[in-house]
C-alpha cells in the first residue's frame, strides 16, 4: 500500500491561495469521486495514467493550473498542434459530469485535472500525496501561448532551466518532474531528431549520447516509413509503473528524448539523476514536493476564475 506523504514545507507562494480539504463542507466526496473515475478508466486502459499526467503539465505550464487546456474551439490551447496528441479528456469530463450531479457548480475542472494526475501516479505505483484545492477555471485559452511555454523534446539544458525557472520551479524540480516520463508514450516524431534518414530511406543514429542497442530498437519500432500516429513507450522496461527506472535508463544512456539524455550528460544534474537511479524513496520524496509546486503554478482563486459547468467551455 502506498504511503501518504503530506508536504508542508517549501511551498511556493501561490500554494497559500489554496486550501487543504477545500471541499470538506461543500462537496465532501469530491476527491473520492475523482479517484474512482480515474481508477475505473485506468483499469480498462493502461495508457490513461500517463495521459492524465501529461495533461496536467500542459495545463499548468500554459496560463497556470486553470484547466485552460480543456477549452475547445478555434485558437484555443487544445487546438494547437503541440496539444493534438494529448489525451485523458474523457476521464476529466466523466468526473465532472458525476460531480455536477452531486455537487453542482462546486468543483472546478482545474482541481479535477490536478487530482486526477495525482491519483494516476499513485495507481501506477507512485507515492500517494495530499494536495490543496480551490483552483478556479480560467477564461482565457490561446494557442499562441502554447509553444513558448512547454518543453520541446529537443530542448537543451539551458532552455529547460529557463522555462522551469519562469514557472517558479528549480533545477531540482526539473530533474524530479522529468521523472513523469517513467510512464506514458511518445510519437516517433518526438525523438526523430536523434536519427538521420539516408538516401535509401533507412535511419542512422546521429546522437552519440544514445545507447547503440537501444537506438537500434527505436529504429526498428519507428522506421522512416512509420505512421505519424505510431508511438513507443517512454520507459522500455516498466512503461506502466511509476518508479525510478526512468533514471536508471538515463544512466544507461537510454533516455528517449534528447531533453531526457541532457539530464545525465549535464554536470549540473547528473548527480541527482544518479541518486534517484539508486534510491527510489529519494525520488518519491522529491516528487511529492515538486508535484505540489507544479500543481500550484499561477493558480486562480475566488473571483480570478470560475467553476465551469462543462470543462470544454466557459460559462455563459
TrEMBL record:
<dbReference type="GO" id="GO:0046872">
    <property type="term" value="F:metal ion binding"/>
</dbReference>
<keyword id="KW-0479">Metal-binding</keyword>
<keyword id="KW-0560">Oxidoreductase</keyword>
<dbReference type="GO" id="GO:0042744">
    <property type="term" value="P:hydrogen peroxide catabolic process"/>
</dbReference>
<feature type="binding site">
    <location>
        <position position="68"/>
    </location>
    <ligand>
        <name>Ca(2+) 1</name>
    </ligand>
</feature>
<dbReference type="InterPro" id="IPR000823">
    <property type="entry name" value="Peroxidase_pln"/>
</dbReference>
<comment type="similarity">
    <text>Belongs to the peroxidase family. Ascorbate peroxidase subfamily.</text>
</comment>
<dbReference type="InterPro" id="IPR019793">
    <property type="entry name" value="Peroxidases_heam-ligand_BS"/>
</dbReference>
<feature type="domain" description="Plant heme peroxidase family profile">
    <location>
        <begin position="17"/>
        <end position="315"/>
    </location>
</feature>
<dbReference type="Pfam" id="PF00141">
    <property type="entry name" value="peroxidase"/>
</dbReference>
<keyword id="KW-0964">Secreted</keyword>
<feature type="site" description="Transition state stabilizer">
    <location>
        <position position="54"/>
    </location>
</feature>
<protein>
    <recommendedName>
        <fullName>Peroxidase</fullName>
        <ecNumber>1.11.1.7</ecNumber>
    </recommendedName>
</protein>
<keyword id="KW-1015">Disulfide bond</keyword>
<feature type="binding site">
    <location>
        <position position="59"/>
    </location>
    <ligand>
        <name>Ca(2+) 1</name>
    </ligand>
</feature>
<feature type="disulfide bond">
    <location>
        <begin position="27"/>
        <end position="103"/>
    </location>
</feature>
<keyword id="KW-0376">Hydrogen peroxide</keyword>
<feature type="disulfide bond">
    <location>
        <begin position="109"/>
        <end position="311"/>
    </location>
</feature>
<dbReference type="InterPro" id="IPR033905">
    <property type="entry name" value="Secretory_peroxidase"/>
</dbReference>
<feature type="binding site">
    <location>
        <position position="64"/>
    </location>
    <ligand>
        <name>Ca(2+) 1</name>
    </ligand>
</feature>
<comment type="similarity">
    <text>Belongs to the peroxidase family. Classical plant (class III) peroxidase subfamily.</text>
</comment>
<feature type="disulfide bond">
    <location>
        <begin position="60"/>
        <end position="65"/>
    </location>
</feature>
<comment type="function">
    <text>Removal of H(2)O(2), oxidation of toxic reductants, biosynthesis and degradation of lignin, suberization, auxin catabolism, response to environmental stresses such as wounding, pathogen attack and oxidative stress. These functions might be dependent on each isozyme/isoform in each plant tissue.</text>
</comment>
<feature type="binding site">
    <location>
        <position position="235"/>
    </location>
    <ligand>
        <name>Ca(2+) 2</name>
    </ligand>
</feature>
<keyword id="KW-0349">Heme</keyword>
<keyword id="KW-0408">Iron</keyword>
<feature type="binding site">
    <location>
        <position position="238"/>
    </location>
    <ligand>
        <name>Ca(2+) 2</name>
    </ligand>
</feature>
<dbReference type="GO" id="GO:0005576">
    <property type="term" value="C:extracellular region"/>
</dbReference>
<dbReference type="InterPro" id="IPR002016">
    <property type="entry name" value="Haem_peroxidase"/>
</dbReference>
<dbReference type="GO" id="GO:0020037">
    <property type="term" value="F:heme binding"/>
</dbReference>
<feature type="binding site">
    <location>
        <position position="182"/>
    </location>
    <ligand>
        <name>Ca(2+) 2</name>
    </ligand>
</feature>
<feature type="binding site">
    <location>
        <position position="66"/>
    </location>
    <ligand>
        <name>Ca(2+) 1</name>
    </ligand>
</feature>
<feature type="disulfide bond">
    <location>
        <begin position="188"/>
        <end position="222"/>
    </location>
</feature>
<feature type="active site" description="Proton acceptor">
    <location>
        <position position="58"/>
    </location>
</feature>
<keyword id="KW-0575">Peroxidase</keyword>
<keyword id="KW-0106">Calcium</keyword>
<feature type="binding site" description="axial binding residue">
    <location>
        <position position="181"/>
    </location>
    <ligand>
        <name>heme b</name>
    </ligand>
</feature>
<dbReference type="InterPro" id="IPR010255">
    <property type="entry name" value="Haem_peroxidase_sf"/>
</dbReference>
<dbReference type="GO" id="GO:0006979">
    <property type="term" value="P:response to oxidative stress"/>
</dbReference>
<dbReference type="GO" id="GO:0140825">
    <property type="term" value="F:lactoperoxidase activity"/>
</dbReference>
<feature type="binding site">
    <location>
        <position position="62"/>
    </location>
    <ligand>
        <name>Ca(2+) 1</name>
    </ligand>
</feature>
<feature type="binding site">
    <location>
        <position position="243"/>
    </location>
    <ligand>
        <name>Ca(2+) 2</name>
    </ligand>
</feature>
Amino acid at each position: 500500500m502506498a504511503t501518504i506523504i503530506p508536504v508542508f514545507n517549501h511551498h511556493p507562494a501561490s500554494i497559500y491561495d489554496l486550501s487543504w480539504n477545500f471541499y470538506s463542507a461543500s462537496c465532501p466526496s469530491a476527491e473520492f469521486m475523482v479517484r474512482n473515475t480515474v481508477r475505473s478508466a485506468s483499469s480498462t486502459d493502461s495508457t490513461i495514467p500517463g495521459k492524465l499526467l501529461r495533461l496536467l503539465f500542459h495545463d499548468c505550464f500554459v496560463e497556470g493550473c486553470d484547466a485552460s487546456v480543456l477549452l475547445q474551439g478555434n485558437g484555443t490551447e487544445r487546438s494547437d498542434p503541440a496539444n493534438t496528441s494529448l489525451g485523458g479528456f474523457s476521464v476529466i469530463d466523466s468526473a465532472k459530469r458525476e460531480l455536477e450531479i452531486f455537487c453542482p457548480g462546486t468543483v472546478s475542472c482545474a482541481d479535477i485535472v490536478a487530482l486526477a494526475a495525482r491519483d494516476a501516479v499513485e495507481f501506477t505505483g507512485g507515492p500517494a500525496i495530499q494536495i490543496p484545492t480551490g483552483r478556479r477555471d480560467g477564461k482565457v485559452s490561446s494557442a499562441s501561448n502554447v509553444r513558448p511555454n512547454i518543453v520541446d523534446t529537443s530542448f537543451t539544458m539551458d532552455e529547460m532551466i529557463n522555462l522551469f525557472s519562469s514557472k517558479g520551479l528549480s533545477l531540482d524540480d526539473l530533474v524530479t518532474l522529468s521523472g513523469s516520463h517513467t510512464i506514458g508514450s511518445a510519437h516517433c516524431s518526438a525523438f526523430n531528431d536523434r536519427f538521420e534518414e539516408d538516401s535509401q530511406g533507412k535511419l542512422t543514429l546521429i546522437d552519440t549520447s544514445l545507447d547503440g542497442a537501444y537506438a537500434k530498437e527505436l529504429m526498428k519500432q519507428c522506421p522512416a516509413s512509420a505512421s505519424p500516429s505510431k508511438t513507443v513507450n517512454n520507459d522500455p522496461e516498466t512503461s506502466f509503473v511509476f518508479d525510478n527506472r526512468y533514471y536508471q535508463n538515463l544512466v544507461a544512456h537510454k533516455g528517449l528524448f534528447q531533453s531526457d539524455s541532457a539530464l545525465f550528460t549535464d554536470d549540473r544534474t547528473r548527480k541527482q539523476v544518479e541518486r534517484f537511479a539508486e534510491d527510489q524513496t529519494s525520488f518519491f520524496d522529491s516528487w511529492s514536493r515538486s508535484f505540489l509546486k507544479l500543481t500550484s503554478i499561477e493558480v486562480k482563486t475566488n473571483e480570478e476564475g470560475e467553476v465551469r459547468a462543462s470543462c470544454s467551455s466557459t460559462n455563459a
